[in-house]
Amino acid sequence: MRFNKGGRGNFSIKKSRLLGGLFSILLAFIIGGVLFALNGYEPLETYRLMFKAVFGTRNGVLQTLLMAQPLLFCGLAICITFKTGMFNIGSTGQLYMGALFACIVGVYVKGLPSIIHIPLCMLAGAVGGALWAFLPVWMRVRQDTSEVITALMMNYISQLFVSFMINYPMRDLETLSAQSPLVQESAMLPKIVPQQQLSVGIIIGFVLALLLHIMLKRTKLGFEMVMSGSNRFAATAAGIPANRVMISTMLMSGGIAGLGGAAAILGTHLRLVQGFAGNVGLEGVAVALFGNWPLGVIVSSVFFGALKTGITALNYSTNLSSYFIFVIEGLVIIFVSAPSLLGQLITWVQSKFKRTGTKANTPRKEKG
Amino acid sequence: MDFSVIMQVINSALRLTTPIAYVAAGAVVLEKSGISAIAMEGMMLAGAFGAVWGSWVTGLPWIGLLIGMLFSVVVGLIRGFFCINLQANQAVCGIGTNIMMSGLTTVMVKFIWGIDGRSETVTPIADLNLTFLKDVPVLSQLFGALSPLVLLMPFVVAGVWVLLNKTALGMYIVTSGEHPHVLSSLGISVYKTRYTASVIAGLLAGLGGAFLSISNLSFFSMEMTSGRGFMGMAACMFGQWTVGGAMLGSALFGLADAIQIRLQATVEHTQFIQMIPYVTTVFVLFTMGKKRLRAPAQGGKPYVEQDA
C-alpha cells in the first residue's frame, strides 16, 4: 500500500477532521464488534441493546448527560490549550484539585446562603485547578520542559493527595469508607430533575462553552490565543507576547477543569470520594479533539457520555469491561491526530480506480 | 539504619530500576530517531499483557516474554505508522496509544479470564538463585536472588549503546533525528530508519513490561505500568538523550521507588510516600533547566519523505 506521501488528496482539512472523527468511531465499533464476536456475543444485537439502553430510557438520557458533564469541562479545558498550540494533559489533576478546594469550602464554611456559598465554592474550585496548572506551564515557559510530562506526573500526585485528604484530615468518621463529609446543603447545586443525580452543573458547562466560544472568536485575548496556536512566529512578529498567552491559557484551562471538579462535587457526588472522576482528563483529550471548538465540544461530550452510558449498560449483561470506552477514545485520538489519514485513504482508493499515468494527486496547499 | 535494610533497599532498587531502564533505553533510541517516546507507556503495558497471555497459553514464561515483546513491537509499529507516514501530532497520537492500550488490555483481561481487573496467576520467570554467592556476606544480600531479566539488563543496555554509537544503523538513527534530509539525500529511507527504531524501542518496552508482569509478579493487573513508561522517558531526558545518562536517571527513579516501598511499612500516611517517584520526576525535570543541548533537533517533528 503506497500512500501519497505528504499530500492530503482532494479533501479540505475541515472535512477531513469531521469524517476522520466519524471514521475512527466507526472503526472502533468494528473492532468492538470483532471483540464481541470472538467472545460469542452477536455484535449487532449487542449494539442494539446498547442503543436502547441509552436512548430508550429516561434513565439513559439522564445518565448520558451526567457522564457528559465532567467530559465537557475537561474537553473545554483541553480544547483551549490545543488552540494555543499547547497540550494540557493535566486536566485530571486540575479537576481533582478543584474538587478538593470546592469540597473544603463546601463542607467547612457554614452559615452562608446558597446564593453566596455556591459561587464561592465554584471560585475555590477554579482557583484550585488553576494552581495545579501553574507548575507545568511555568516550567514550559521558563525552561522549555514539556508540559505534558510534568502535568502527567502531577495527575498522579494530585490523586494521591486527594486520597490522603479523604483518608485522614477530611475523613467522615461516621461512615465506613474513606470519603469526606457531605457538603453543606447551601453548597449543593440544584437538581434539574428531582430525585436524580443530574444537576445544573451541566448547564454551567454549556454556558461556559458558550462563553469560551465568544472569547475565542471575539475578544482580543482569544485572538491572541488562536494566533499563537496556528503560527507562533507570525504571532510574535505581530507583537503578541507568546509567554503571557501560554500562561493565561494554561491557568484558564486549569480553572475550567477545576470548575468541572467543583461541579462534580457540588452537583453529582456531594462529597469527595476516592477516584470519583476516574481518568477523565485523558478522556477529555478525545472529546476535545473530536469537538475541536468549544461548541463542538458540547456535542462531543454528550456523544461520549452516551457511549459511556451504553458501555456501562453492557457491562452488566456481557463480559465487556467498562474500559472499552478507553479503546474507543484512544482510537479516536489516534485517528484524529492524523487528519491526513482519511484524505490519503480516499486518494489511494481513487488511484486504484482511476489508473491515470501521473501520480493520482499532487500535494495540495496546507489550508484546504 | 540497619545495614541489612540498606542492602534490602538496594536489592529492591535493582529490581525496580530494571523495567524503567529497559524502557529508558528504548526511549533514547526512539527519541534519537525523531519520534516522541510518549507512547512507551502503552507499549510497555502491551508487553506486560502479552507476556502474561503468552505464559498462560503456553505455560512457558520465556515464550511469554517473547510474545510480550511481539505485542509491544506491534503497538510501536502501528503508532509509528501514524507518526511516520501520516505525520500525526506525535504527542497526541502517543497519548491516544496509551489510552487505547490501557483500555484494550483491561478489556482483553476481562474477556479472557473473566475477572475484572487482573488476570489469573501464570507461571512466572523464576528468580535465579546465584548459589555460588551464598556465603559471600554483602553480595549475597544484594545479588542472591535476582530475576534473570535484571541480570540481563546491563548487557542489553550495553548492546543498545553499541548499536547507537558504533554501528551504521545507529548513525542513521541519530541522523534521522537531527538532519533527516541528509539521510534522504544519501538515498537512505528516513521512514525505514524510524520504523527500525520503533521496532527496537518496542522490543525494549516489551522487556520492561514483561518484567513487571511475569518476573516481578506473576499476573497482569490493569494499568500495572503506573507511569513507569513516562519515567523511562523522563530518565532519557535526564540523561540528555544518552544511554548512560538514561541509566543514571532510571537508577534514580528505581531508588526512589524502592525507598517509597520500604517507607510505606513505617509511615502511616503512605500517600505522600507513594508520591516520591512522581515528585522526583518533576524535580529532575526542573533541575535540568534549559540544558537540552542534546535533544534531537527533529524530535517530535514529522518528516515528509520525498518520493525517491
Overview of this protein structure:
- Helix content of chain A is 71%, strand content 0%.
- Chain A has 368 residues and is mainly α.
- In chain A, helix 3 (58-83) crosses helix 8, helix 4 packs across helix 11 (280-291) and helix 7 (201-218) packs antiparallel against helix 10.
- Mean pLDDT of chain A is 82; it is low at 1-11.
- Chain B has 308 residues and is mainly alpha-helical.
- Chain B has twelve helices and two strands; from the N terminus they run ααααβαβααααααα.
- The interface between A and B is large, with 56 and 54 residues.
Proportion in β-strands of chain B: under 5%
Please state the CA-atom Rg of chain B, rounded to the nearest Å. 19 Å
Mean pLDDT of chain B: 83
- Spatial extent as radius of gyration of chain A: 22 Å
**Mean pLDDT score of chain A:** 82
Largest sheet of chain A: none
SSE run of chain A: HHHHHHHHHHHHHH
Proportion of residues in helical segments of chain B: over 70%
Give the N-terminus to C-terminus distance of chain B in angstroms. Answer: 65 Å
Can you count the helices of chain B? Answer: 12
Give a quick rundown of the structure.
With 368 residues, chain A is mostly helical. Chain A has helices at residues 13-38, 43-55, 58-83, 91-108, 114-143, 147-167, 201-218, 220-230, 232-237, 242-269, 280-291, 294-317, 324-336, 340-354.
Based on the model shown, name its key terms.
A: 368 residues, mainly alpha, globular, disordered N terminus, B: mainly alpha, 1% strand
Write the layout of secondary structure elements.
The complex is a heterodimer of chains A (368) and B (308).
Chain A: H1 13-38, H2 43-55, H3 58-83, H4 91-108, H5 114-143, H6 147-167, H7 201-218, H8 220-230, H9 232-237, H10 242-269, H11 280-291, H12 294-317, H13 324-336, H14 340-354
Helix pairs in contact in A: 1-2, 1-13, 1-14, 2-3, 2-12, 3-7, 3-8, 3-10, 3-11, 3-12, 4-5, 4-6, 4-10, 4-11, 5-6, 5-10, 7-8, 7-10, 7-12, 8-10, 11-12, 11-13
Chain B: H1 3-32, H2 40-58, H3 61-84, H4 90-113, E1 128-129, H5 137-143, E2 145-146, H6 148-166, H7 168-178, H8 180-185, H9 190-215, H10 228-238, H11 243-264, H12 270-288
Antiparallel strand pairs in B: 1-2
